[in-house]
Amino acid sequence: MTPSVGRILAVEDSAVIRMALARALQVRGHQVTTANDGIEAMEALRNGAFDVVLLDIEMPRKDGFETLAEIKADDRLRELPVIVISGVEDTASVARCIEMGALDHLQKPFEPAVLDARLGAALSAKRLRDLELEYLEQVRKVTNAAERLEHDDFDKAALDEVSAREDALGVLARTFVRMAEEVRAREDALRRQVRELTIEIDEARQHRKVAEITDSDYFRALRGRAAELRQDAHGAAAPDAGPEERLKDQGPDPAPVDE
Amino acid sequence: MVERPVPEVLDQAALNELMAMVGDDAEFMDELVDTYLNETPDLLAQIRSALGNGSATEVVRPAHTLKGSSASIGAREVEGLSRTIEEAARADAAEVLTLADDLEDAYGRLVEALARARMRRWSGA
Fold first, then answer.
1. What is the pLDDT along chain A (259 residues), one digit of tens a residue?
2. Which residues of B are less than 8 Å from A19 in CB distance?
3. Test the B interface: residue of A11, A12, A13, A16 with most B CBs within 10 Å
4. Inter-residue contact A105 to A98 (CB < 8 Å)
């Protein structure tokens, strides 16, 4: 079986072993970066993306134990599979590294078949973990969308990527978006109805108030009094014109006389 | 003193395996062995100097590196002596002092064996 290929960081202080390992990995189609010790390895890890780290244990400046501990303490790097490389007699060191979180170990000098098998398994583990993390991230997007829907702040575009999936999560996201849109449409319709009802209620309230006033004895008395006043006013104006009508009968003022 | 079996200077089977692993590229093997030949005298000097200072702990790292690089090219005799020196140094054993000469002699034999292998373009035939 041809092993899958990946981005490998090979950390080894011996120039000869580093060269041979890098070439062996390149021949197998991997993309290889090398580091002479743990310090260079951490620098490479913080500046690049890798699928697997092949890590020597005995190294100057920063050894494999310190490097592994630093990788496992870093949130961004802790999921990265680390295969420690060791001599035949380094069993205790290998066991310690496995306890510290290394995925596997490779013995020097490298057996090509074992190198392929362990690297293939590490790459598969990495891909599976990447898929798992991506899945969890997309589940988080759906739960976030539900939360935002509750706060009336749902943006359909936030689920575009999840909705494009062909698996059950994609079905869930598409169903969620459809239902969210239905809920939103229903809410809009309800809001419109409430607005219309409010207007009707306000109008009815005003009518009732007017009726209350016009139906009162006091209003009726006032209306009667007003009618009487109008009648009186008409009666007085008919035999003897009012002051305005009398003024109109006198015609315009005479022109002023110069002295 | 315990007699140790003398390992072969250069293991042709290991060399063949290494060739296959690096894509049967004889020119790359030239470069790789040149790197080994450039790196090793410095490691031997570090071992000699640490032993001269009576500092067994400082012998460990160069002996360890030499053991690994020698194993990768099939240099069995140098690999074996480096391993013995590393283990003796870790145990702070007096034996380590007597092995530096043996290691340098073995390295001399290895240089000759590598020259012959290069002439054969690294194949056993």
1. 444 899 999 999 999 999 999 999 999 999 999 999 999 999 999 999 999 999 999 888 999 999 999 999 999 999 999 999 988 778 899 999 999 999 999 998 888 889 999 999 999 999 998 899 889 988 998 898 888 888 888 888 888 988 998 988 898 988 888 888 888 888 889 989 999 999 999 999 999 998 888 888 888 899 899 999 999 888 876 655 555 554 444 444 444 444 3
2. 31-32, 35
3. A16
4. yes
With b for 16 or more beta-carbon neighbours within 10 A and e for fewer, the A143-160 pattern comes to eebeeebeeeebeeebbe
Residues in A touching B35 (Cβ below 8 Å): 15-16, 19
- What span, in angstroms and rounded, lies between the C-alpha atoms of A145 and A143? 5
The answer as to whether B122 is a domain residue is no
Domain boundaries, chain A: 7-129, 155-228
ipTM, two decimals, is: 0.89
Which residue in this structure is represented by tokens 């000097």? B45
Chain A interface, mutation test: which of B16, B17, B22, B25, most A Cβ atoms within 10 Å? B22
A101 Cα to chain B: minimum distance (Å): 24
Interface contact A20-B39, CB threshold 8 A = no
Whether B123 is in a domain gets the answer no
Assess if residue B1 is contained within a domain: no
Test A20 with B14 for CB contact under 8 angstroms.
no
Question: Rounded distance, CA B79 to CA B76, Å?
Answer: 5
- Which structural domain range is residue B89 located in? 12-117
* DSSP codes of every residue in B70-121: HHHHT-HHHHHHHHHHHHHHHTT-TTHHHHHHHHHHHHHHHHHHHHHHHHTT
Closest chain B residue by Cα to residue A63: B61
Phi then psi for A94, rounded to 5 degrees? Answer: -60, -45
B124 by Cβ neighbours in 10 Å (0-12 / 13-18 / 19+) ranks as exposed
- Give, in words, the CATH class of A7-129: alpha beta
CATH number at residue B96: 1.20.120.160
- Spatial neighbors of A142 by CB under 8 A, at least 6 apart, are A159, A162, A169, A172, A173, A176
Residue linked to tokens 């990788």: A71
Domain count, chain B: 1
